Amino acid sequence: QVQLVESGGGLVQAGGSLRLSCVASGLTLRSYAMAWFRQTPGKERDFVASINWSSVSTYYADSVKGRFTISRPNAKNTVYLQMNSLKPEDTAVYYCAAGVVPIPTISGYDYWGQGTQVTVSS
Question: Going residue by residue through the chain (122 aa), what tens digit of pLDDT does each one get?
Fold first, then answer.
């Protein structure tokens, strides 16, 4: 059974940092492209960042470029999202996802976690 479990969310002041983790079981993450999406109530799930299976290429939404970093250490079945210089508009539930190619749309991903809440106060 495939499971992706996110953690690391919480409440942080604007300008602060958080690191989200996504731990996989039932699949080997290094065989998959991985991504982070986020969603606020009543809105669509938006692309945040992705990384290809070899970890050579990373992609970011314009709104987070230069502030967020996606990474996947070879020795761990985990993907991270380091979030710096957080803004109130980054407040959302963050989801990790696994798929074949690191495209910025939800249709490209086969497996999803349950999400972790990130709240940035002003």
Answer: 899 999 999 999 999 999 999 999 998 888 899 999 999 999 999 999 999 988 899 999 999 999 999 999 877 789 999 999 999 999 999 999 999 999 999 999 999 999 999 999 99
Contacts 24+ apart (CB under 8 A), 29-33: 29/72, 29/77, 29/78, 29/79, 29/98, 30/55, 30/72, 30/74, 30/77, 32/98, 32/99, 32/100, 32/111, 33/98, 33/99, 33/100, 33/101, 33/102, 33/103, 33/108
What one-character-per-residue DSSP string does 32-45 give?
SEEEEEEE-TTS--
In 3D, which of 29, 27, 8 has the Cα closest to residue 81? Answer: 8
